[in-house]
Every structure is written in structure tokens, then in C-alpha cells.
Amino acid sequence: MKYQLASRMAGMKASAVREILKVTQRPEVISFAGGLPAPELFPVDEISKVAQEVCAEEGRKVLQYATTEGRPTLRQKIADRMNKIYNSDLKMENILITTGSQQNLDMAGKIFLNPGDVVLMEAPTYLAAINAFKAYECTFKEVPTDDKGMIPEALEKILETTENVKLVYVITDFQNPTGICWPMERRKAFMEIMAKYDIPVLEDNPYGELRYEGTTNPSLLSMDQRGQVMGMGTFSKTFCPGLRIGWLACSPDIMPQFVKVKQSADLHSSAFDQAIIDRYMDEFSLDEHVKEINALYGHRRDLIIQCMEKEFTDGTTWTHPEGGLFLWLTFPEGVSARKVFDKCIEKNVAGVLGEFFYPTTKSDRHMRINYSNMPDDRIKEGIRRMGEALREVAAGK
Amino acid sequence: MKYQLASRMAGMKASAVREILKVTQRPEVISFAGGLPAPELFPVDEISKVAQEVCAEEGRKVLQYATTEGRPTLRQKIADRMNKIYNSDLKMENILITTGSQQNLDMAGKIFLNPGDVVLMEAPTYLAAINAFKAYECTFKEVPTDDKGMIPEALEKILETTENVKLVYVITDFQNPTGICWPMERRKAFMEIMAKYDIPVLEDNPYGELRYEGTTNPSLLSMDQRGQVMGMGTFSKTFCPGLRIGWLACSPDIMPQFVKVKQSADLHSSAFDQAIIDRYMDEFSLDEHVKEINALYGHRRDLIIQCMEKEFTDGTTWTHPEGGLFLWLTFPEGVSARKVFDKCIEKNVAGVLGEFFYPTTKSDRHMRINYSNMPDDRIKEGIRRMGEALREVAAGK
């Protein structure tokens, strides 16, 4: 039969990264494409232990339907943890448990966006955010960014001259895909500008805890006095992604809208998975666990940058992230990222083409590289192959 | 700050049932309001065992990001099981794992509904479906129903005279809230009418396996030769709801739209919870487990109807479900359900007011009663109190 789809479906694409992952899952391919955490650090034995305890001590309660807002003790722990790390002042009532932090993107789109409304974003930015918002038929306006995040003057100008801006989406810590982190003065300047507008800010922060050097800045959420900033968080990078537990931290003034939308989207997130994380945090130290993750990822970042310094002799440059999962390559002027990508695939190595991360710009100069999910020997061999590909493209082969 | 919400938010309400549940959770209230399965039957020890095995044997894989479509072996098991029970011919490729079957309602709305489009529904129907679709600013048209489901002639007339019908939503087995089940001739008549139209049918079936007597009819999905019917299913009622694992069964022609929408909504459903259910079905018999559930619920239905026959002496009538979780009260003409409800609350007993289950009709004659979640003594005492309330309302007190 002939299906007639809603008009919003025309703009929605299958995730480019997920499609690429299918190509790059052949074992002979060294893939820097995914955004996967290192599975060797998943606390598998601890999860097994607490899962048993959940069943033994509260199984019949935890396996029943639960409240949409989420498990109270877990919401409290998240509030406490965010306050400690990012200097915020959250209470349990500010926290909504979500099905991965991805769910927040869909919910924010649903709550704030009419067709034609404008979303401001960094460029490049998280590609699944672009797709999630597209479902609500918005348009995007890229805010020019440099190596410190959104440029305040550029943001201000766009706000002054653009109608129907209904949401500003930012990733302030170790941004996906660039790995850059907004310094304090940028955060302040951003908040000062935004304070002049009644436009909500969605601060996505899946990577902030993965800092291997330097000091953590307060979140935008912590600097907000007027319920303007909604903060997204997740256990996917600090614990494991398979459980799909994230959260939203926001003002009680807007929380009921998210609860309503979540009710109709999936009633509540897995109560069993929530209980596992909650008990893990009672019995083990998530802080210590995150330290282990950071030691490993810091090592991998050092190694991959060392390798790139040696292998990337064609003028390609890269960001130097102090945390997170990604760095961002910029190829020399005139070198097509698409060509590099194709040459890489020939050599069984892959990153993600930069073009997917731009809401509107057509860019053919970049590639995203993930280094969190790769043992040393494969980092070395992968970057060697990529260097070879770069030299061949530069030589016009 | 002043929040400016998308226009769709004006139509969305917090779930009436979830709000009522808060009132009725006081321990002194005997509540027939929820739609909760009996927790004493949750296979807690079995879940504990398979959770350990998942961790020990495939922990690092299961706790990682996973495909949006879901765990292949679980998808296959669902297809096989549906084929056995409902006479369908599904393959793994027809099954998408979802975060509860509620997620399907949101996804179907997103995929098929533009503002102003029309959704046809039974009246009364599942209230969270009404809310999920409302997020897409549709309008509803109630198809007159009798004790066998949608009335074919009425459906045909509506289809002939209504523009922009984009979705038909039905619950064919032990409907929520009425408990009625469509007989075979109704299913056939429905499918014959629908075959004349390119309008997708969403067949919600959370209760079909909970049949305590009689024989199961083929699903609409199994009767469909043209990719028109999308079938929804869930483990919430046959296993436990806390894990939030449901599914969609549909044609490969429309599946990619659901995958795309699910990607942007939550990437994938809990891989850990999927693995638990998959392994449970390997090691234990879900069929035997469902038999136990049906024995208990059948007993509770018998008991509650017995009690109602004795206590409801005012002319109130009820449906006699052959399965599922609910029955539906109709009060005598002139008796306000709202008055009965208030009187019931005075006496610390509750059901759900019927009015919440109608997309458009204003109805004040009905109440939904859940009996799956209640031990015998509380059923007896609850119905005794309710009978007292009914007699007092009839007497004008």
C-alpha cells in the first residue's frame, strides 16, 4: 500500500554515523568513527552484584510500573553529583530520569518548536541533535564558533536580527565533534547575552566528567538564575550506554512539560536499570571509576596525537581536547575530506566525515576522530594508514 | 523567565490515571484504578539468574551501545511467538524493539500525523494513546463501538465522509478500558473495509495473551496482505513492566521510518533489559508463566464479578472480559459517574472515571475497574464499599 507520511518525515534522515558504523564493523577496518566508550572498563561484575541485590531486596517493586519522574534516590544522587562537579544548586525535584540523554533532545523539540522556528547551534555540532530537532520542522542557524565555543558577538548579532529563535543548543564541555571546551569568560559572556532574551538554552553535557587535565568550569545551568538553562546528562559515558539512563536538570517551572511529554513517549525509563545505577553508587565509587576511565582515555589521546604528529605530514591540523571522546581534523585547504575518507576506507581505516555535523554549512574540510574505544596497537596502525591516505590524496593519487 | 511553548503543548494533558494513582496510593484506599500487573507473579528469581548470566557471558557487549532495531535473537523470538499465538507470518526483520509499547504510539503519531489530520479510534479507548497522538495536533473521530468492537457500517460511513483520516487505532483483544474482544467476523469486516483505503492501522495488543477462557483470534496484522497493519506488543503484562520492553511488528516498507524516528528519540532500548528477556525465554517457559498469570487473573475476574453481582444492586452493569486486566461499569441512566467516584473516594475505594477514555464524547456513565492487582480480601471489601457508594448515590445521598 502507499504510505502517506507526515510532512516532518521529509527532513528526517537515518543517522549517518549509525549507517557508517555498519560499514566499519568489518573486523579488518580500524574505525575511529563511532563514539563508543571503552567496554573493558564497564563495571560488569559490580553490575551483576547489584542486579542480584535489586532482585532480592526490592524486585517486586522495581519490576512494576514506576513514576515518570524516576527513582527518587537516583534523582537525589544525580543532583548532589552535579552540584559537586559543576557548582550547581539542584534538588531532587530538578531532575527527570530519561531514556538516555538523547530523549531530552526529542522532548525539547516537542515542547519548544513549532514548524519554522529557529534553533541556534554551534557549527559543527552533535548530528543526532540536528536530526531530533528536524522532527519538529525547525530551521537551524549556525552560530560562528572558534576554539573556545560560540563567539559572543556573533551570537548577539544573530539574536538581534533573527525572529522566532525558540531554542539555543550548546555542548559546552569537550564538544562533539570538536572536543573543545568553553572557558569561563565565554560562559559568562554567553549567559549575559542570553539573559536579555526569553529563549531556553539546552546545555548538553555527556562528556564533562571525562576531563583528563585542567579544571572543570561551572555549567551554564549553575550560572542561571531564571530557569533559562536545561542541563542534559547521562551515565552512558561514565558507567555504560547499554542501560540507557540519562537525565534532565531544569527549573520546576518547565519540568511539568517534560514530565507530560515523557509520559506519552514511554511512561518511564527502565526502573530496573535505574535501580542498578542507584545501588552501584551506594556501594561503589563512581568517582573512582571515572578516574580510571580518564586515565585510559587521557593515555589514548596522548598516543593518538603523538601518532598524528608523526604521520600527518601534509599540513592537516587537529584539536587538542582536555577530555571527552573526540578530536577534530582540519585538512589543508584544497584537500577534500570526502576524498580522504574514501582513500581511508580503501586502506581499512575510518573516521566520520565532518559534513554530517553541520546543520546548514556545506563543509568538506573535516573529519571526526574517536579515540576512546581503541587499543594502542590499533591506534598506531590506524593513524599510520590514515597518514598514508593523507599523503596520497595530497599527491593527487 | 517566560516560556514560550510550541502550540502542540496546549492539547497535551498529564495522564489522568497517573494523577489519580497519586491520590489512590494512600494505603487505606482500595484502588481498582491502576492497570498494574500482579507483582507476586514477577519472575524475580529467574530475572536475577539470567541477569548474572548476561553479565558473565556477554556483559561487555550488552552494556555497550546497540543497534536501534534491537537484539536480533529477541526479535526472532517475538516473531516466532506472535506467529504461534496470532497466526501471523513475521520474520525478525518485521520486529522493532521499543521502550515499552507506549513508544509506538508516539512514533506512529510522529510518522503519520500532520496538524489537523484525523485519527479514528474506538470510544472509549486507551487514554495514553489519545494523549500521545495529541502531541501531533490531530483531531479524533470516534467510531461507534458495541460489545464486539468497532461497528463496521459505522466505520465505513466515517471513512466515506471524512477527509484526512491518517491513522486508525484499535485494541482488538480485551480492550482498555472495556475488556471486550473483537470476534472473528468483526475482524474480517474491518479488514475488508480498510482494504479500500491507504490508511495505516495501528493494532495495539498488550493483553491478548492474557486469555483465561475461549480461543484466541488471529490478529488483524496476520490478516493483512498489504503492509497496512502495524502491530504493537509488550512484555509489560506477561513478564514485567519495569524493564520497559515492547515491540512493533510491521512491514519492511514502513519499518525504516520507525527506525529513523526511534534513533532520534532514544537511540535504542535498554540492551541489558532486552538480553534479560531473551535469555529468560531461552531458559524458562514464558508460556507456562503466562498460564500462571491467567489462572490468577481468571480467578480474580470471577471473584470480582461474583462480588458485583451481590453488591451492585442499583442496576449498574458490567462487561464480562475473557481476558486482560479490566472491566467496564455502566451506571444506571441518571446516575453520574462523577458522583459515584466522589462517594467512592469518601469510602476509600477507587476506579477510573470513564470520561478520561473518550477522545471527544462527554460521558458521565462509566468507570474502569482493574482487578489484576488485588488480593481476594481487598476485592471483596472494595466492591462492598463501592456497592454501598452506589446505593447511597441512587438514594440521592
Output the strand order for the largest sheet of chain A. 2-10-9-8-7-3-4
What is the number of strand segments of chain A?
Answer: 15
Q: How is the main sheet of chain A built? A: 7 strands, mixed
Biggest interchain interface, per-side counts? A-B, 88 and 88 residues
Number of helices of chain A: 13
- Full CATH superfamily name of the largest domain in chain A: Type I PLP-dependent aspartate aminotransferase-like (Major domain)
Question: How much of the residues of chain A is beta strand, in percent?
Answer: 5-15%
CATH topology of the largest domain in chain A: Aspartate Aminotransferase, domain 2
Helical fraction of chain A: 40-55%
CATH top level assignment of the largest domain in chain A? Alpha Beta
Low-confidence stretches of chain A: none
Tell me the radius of gyration of chain A.
Answer: 21 Å
How would you describe this protein?
- 2 copies of one chain form a homodimer.
- The first copy, chain A, is an alpha/beta fold.
- The first copy, chain A, folds into 2 domains: 7-36 and 286-394, Aspartate Aminotransferase, domain 1 (Alpha-Beta Complex); 42-281, Aspartate Aminotransferase, domain 2, CATH 3.40.640.10.
- Helix content of chain A is 42%, strand content 15%.
- The first copy, chain A, has helices spanning 16-24, 44-62, 72-86, 102-112, 127-134, 152-161, 184-194, 220-223, 255-266, 271-283, 286-311, 337-346, 376-394, and strands at residues 30-31, 95-99, 118-122, 139-143, 145-146, 149-150, 165-171, 201-204, 229-234, 245-249, 317-318, 326-330, 349-350, 352-353, 366-370.
- In chain A, strands 2-10-9-8-7-3-4 form a 7-stranded mixed sheet, with helices on both faces.
- In chain A, α5 links the parallel β3 (118-122) and β4 (139-143).
- In chain A, α4 (102-112) packs across α9.
- At the A-B interface, α2, α4, α5, α9 and α10 of A face α2, α4, α5, α9 and α10 of B.
